[in-house]
Predict the 3D structure of the following.
Amino acid sequence: MSGTACVCQEIECREIEIDYNQLDKIIRDDYGGNKETMIMMMQAIQRVYRFLPEAALKYLSQVIDVPLTKIYEVATFYASFSLEPKGKHILTICTGTACHLRGSGGMVRHIAERMGIEPGKTTQDLKLTLETVNCVGACAVAPVAVMDEKYYPKATIATLNDFMDRLDAE
Ligand code: FES
């Protein structure tokens, strides 16, 4: 069984295919339908879709008999959950004090202009999500960029351009 769930964002309507068999495998097979493991189920669902689609959360709610409002409470409480589609790649720029003083604000603006997205947003083709963070604990090597969980100390515009060139070539 599969279905299409609308995940509209501001600019255009994006649709994704929900694989309910896969959801069943996560919810019933991997976690035995046990509502005590709801957060782990949500983490597993997010690993599949890179965010939490509404249709998947509704299905989870039905199967484990937890009100959808409770599931959304959890989804919005933990910063690691996203209710918006995320890109295949995540580029995070540290904008904490040390990084800001070494030009991370200009790096954010550069990426935003080149990719046409604001911080916290994802490109229309779902290739890239641009995020900012306050400090990643590496102030001595500021400014720091994190690309797909790999840290780039003393990042430069050239570092970022290399990354975005690779995205363009995909
Ligand atoms: S402010 Fe950027 S690593 Fe600390």
